[in-house]
Amino acid sequence: MSGGGVTFSSQAVNRDSVVILQALLEAGQAFVSGSLLAQQLGVSRPAVHGKLDKLRGEGFEVEAVRNRGYRILRLPEVLHPALLRCALDQRGSRIGLHYFPEIDSTNSEAERRIASGEPSPFAIVAGCQTQGRGRLGRVWESGSAENLYLSLCFEPRIPPQQLQHFTLWAGICICRALQHFVPQAPLKIKWPNDLHCKGRKFAGMLTEAKIDADGIRSIVFGLGLNINSNPNEFPGEIRSLATSLYAIHGEPLALNEVTAAVICAIEEAYAISIGNLVTHTSLAEAWQPLDALAGHEVTAIAGDRAITGIAAGIDESGALLLRGADGASQPIRAGDVTLKK
Ligand code: BTN
């Protein structure tokens, strides 16, 4: 697909690689025989050998032992479309997947695909972005293949007011999913779109929607997630403000596994917000333990107004509640929030 005259090529998910990886990953440390793989793929054993060589060239370390077969010793450290597809299949997600080694913006690519009639839902994942964008016209640094640049596209018929719910549920579901990978770290959400750990941002969400008289036509949900990058290498202005899951956890994470977990979390958030999945907690209750702002003095910039107060959670519409000196809570429906030092 082309963006601004530049053409970006997606790398197709290789079905044979998915079948091989599924068998090898399921077997764990056990060997899988070449003849079993040949049978599953309907090809000769030398052809299987060739396909494994191809996987080696893509960053997999595969051991081959005569009369025993093959086993995986190491996975690639970067995104790999077949490995990601395996991880999604394992989690029961059937979402369409497009992987680009490089793209202008995964959100822009999702918009182009919707405009050309591609049925949703689908996910766009990129190794890097040349024009990654953040909220409020900001740039999203997107040069590191150790991080995640992801967009999911949906076409719901819901009133636009429900859009805010979706982004907030996405933050909740993503935070909960990531918490399994970094169990010791307190992952939080800074209303409305940022994921934080100990005051530093490690992810940002950007929801863009096309709306007409009947409601929302399409939603593109974009996520930039710092996974395995080293914050010491971040550009100067964000170095003191940002972090990554690697820095939080102290060890690199399995990029494709984390990506699959995040995609499933976003699908779950979508199902909740359109009423296809029942939750036992309300939005405000689910938000409360993950709220990075609760109890802190914050200033919200809403349009040309600056409102300062103590953050007191969100209401069921998703608005941030700011308690003023008189004890009354004021709902902030949109805007940018800064924590008072
Ligand atoms: C923010 O914190 O300002 C939101 C950042 C969102 C960045 C992601 S990266 C994937 C998707 N594509 C984009 O161009 N932006 C979003």
Topology:
Layout: E1 2-3, E2 6-7, H1 15-27, H2 34-41, H3 45-57, E3 61-65, E4 69-74, H4 81-90, E5 96-100, H5 106-115, E6 122-126, E7 148-154, H6 162-179, E8 187-190, E9 194-197, E10 200-212, E11 215-225, H7 236-239, H8 245-249, H9 255-273, H10 283-287, E12 297-302, E13 305-314, E14 320-323, E15 329-332, E16 336-339
Helix pairs in contact: 1-4, 2-3, 4-9, 6-9
Biotin binds at residues 105-107, 129, 132-135, 138, 140, 149-151, 193-194, 204-206, 222-224.
Largest sheet: 7 strands, mixed
User: What is the H-and-E element order?
Assistant: EEHHHEEHEHEEHEEEEHHHHEEEEE
- Compute the number of strand runs: 16
- SS element count, helices: 10
- Give the number of domains: 3
Mean of residue pLDDT values: 94
Which CATH architecture of the largest domain is right? 2-Layer Sandwich
Associated small molecules:
biotin
Tell me, what is the CATH class of the largest domain?
Answer: Alpha Beta
Radius of gyration: 22 Å
**Overall 3D form:** elongated
Sequence stretches where pLDDT stays below 50 over 5 or more residues: none
Q: What is the CATH superfamily label of the largest domain?
A: Bira Bifunctional Protein, Domain 2
- Helical coverage, percent range: 25-40%
> Helices and strands: which structural class?
alpha+beta
